[in-house]
Design goal:
4Fe-4S; 725 residues; 23 helices; metal-binding; TIM Barrel; transmembrane helix; 6-stranded parallel β-sheet; EC 4.1.3.44
Amino acid sequence: LDVSMDAWNFYYTCLLSLWLHRFYIYSVVAFGISIWIVIQFFKTKKNVTASEGTEDKLVNGYATLQAKEVYVAGVKIFYGSQTGTAKKFATGLAEAVISLNLPVEVINMADYDPDDCLPEETASRNVCVFLVATYTDGQPTESAAWFCKWLGEAANDFRFGKTYLKGLRYAVFGLGNSVYVDHYNTVGRNIDRWLWMLSASRIMTRAEGDCNVAQSKHGSIEADFEAWKAKFLSRLQALCRGEKKPCSGKCKKGKCKSSRKQSKESSDHEHGASEYENAEAEELFETSSEEETDAEEAGGTNSVVDVEDLGNIMSYMKKAKGYTNARIHVWALVSVLSLADPWLNCATVVTDALIYFLFSGYKLIGSHSGVKLCRWTKSMLRGRGGCYKHTFYGIESHRCMEATPSLACANKCVFCWRHHTNPVGTEWRWKMDQPEVILQEAIENHQNMIKQFKGVSGVKADRFEEAMTAKHCALSLVGEPIMYPEINRFVKLLHQHSISSFLVTNAQFPDEIRNLEPVTQLYVSVDASTKESLKRIDRPLFKDFWQRFLDSLKALSEKQQRTVYRLTLVKAWNVDELKAYADLITIGKPDFIEVKGVTYCGESSASNLTMANVPWHEEVVRFVQELADLIPDYGIACEHEHSNCLLIAHKKFKVHGEWCTWINYDRFQELVREHERSGGSKTFTAADYTAKTPRWALFGSRERGFDPSDVRYQRKNKARDISGC
């Protein structure tokens, strides 16, 4: 017992001592760990230094090109040539790049799909070189036409965002003839500017070769190219060494100080190899494009000009062809002048719309109409799937024309993807074009836009031929189509051309809805379910907007053809009003209810929406399921995951247990012709032209609304969805 007591006393004493001196023990342990970390750090550093030394010996003087961190992974040389000169230059440049032990790829623009591949260059560490010729009337060569069209639209479409090509490094050499002064090297200048507008980084100033030997800086276009090539190779070697500045660095705002009197373009250098690190970086990145300088001289975003300067301003606009930072508020000016001369009211839409459409790739028609090629039309032309209307109603997206007979709108919705650049108004007060003229020009413009896809990589020949004949018209491009006084004549003309009509209204014109002739499908945008939220989201111009809204829904319930509620979900704005939405459905009794998550359209001073307001598809599904539980006469019919959209349909469209949400378009044309021949006495209903919905389009299907006859394309490293429809 004594021995055990002694052992216990010994252990107790030791434990007590350790506890009393625990802080010293902790300190010793921490000191030991610190010493170990320092030793490991120096060991690692020593190994890295030794490894770099070994690489230096292996490459014998070219270690900077083979450093552990690869600054340039390779060079891609794009050429657009008509006579073969640009192709010859591309081949010669490729041979020179190969001599630097760098991978190189020569690409004919005709065989390249910029929509798929160009954004991937933002993270590839490649340097992209563009050798492009200017052809007749300043147009690109046939091989470069599609590339230029896509790039120009991307640069002027806010849905892509200003930083869409951030990280892409490039250089441009243009081929032209200064004899044609008005179009000299237009294509090279445009490509340079468009890439810059999308935040791509120039590694050196754009150069231009001149076929006119009398004006060529070096005596011939070949000599011009050789001089530029030498500078390019020197710049490329500097990039391979990790150097980011193309000059000594003693510059202010990217402009090199030169002792010689040179032109502004040749003396301006851009520090474009480095990426933008903050919002002000773009200001330090000076452009070498004359058109950008012209635009700045013409006026900034918020500039107001005198009447005498309008001619100069519009010439700048025509020359720039879409430079977004030069939008002038001419519409506001004309509106003020209209106080003195009411006739100027007729030009209000024209002036503002002209500027707007020049910047957006839209085609202006007459005084108040427009047409544009939908991205889903392009997608289906290439066999990559159609829009949600294809899934829900069976339209052929590649044969759909998106248009409007009225640019003006009575709302200023917070999620408007046009950023409120179109005019607004509560009544028609503009010079009116005849519906025959509008339709004819709409079809012609649409066909011309389709023609530009001829020969484009991936476009299916059979669909291209079909697309030349429009079969559907979505009157939802911009504005309020139902405001157009001759909307009924316009719709009848569509039907006479065997074109189905999908008309969208913002529920502020109930009388016009009642007086509307039969259309294939009539939509009403129901963006909120209470007076307060509707005012906050749609920001209507009418003071009695809520009563107009309710009257429009009542007018919709009186229509015999297909009717649709269009709900756009904006997270934190209108997703918590399920019961109120259900009440509105009992008023309008729509055949279908489309529920779609809002599409983020980029930053805008007109709206404070962010990506945080865009609901996930699962959130939209949950909302639809909860809403369907509140409306027993309806069920969830279809889903188009790619558009973040679902369709709720009235159960009268579920025939013998199968959904029939698709449209028999031929049957509709027969019915509407009979209706017109009878003077309106022979009517028909939505049930008379339905068609069975395919399995892949149904909610819960494995395809989730994507047509299995097409191939879904998902871009690598895609930052966000810019779909919209």
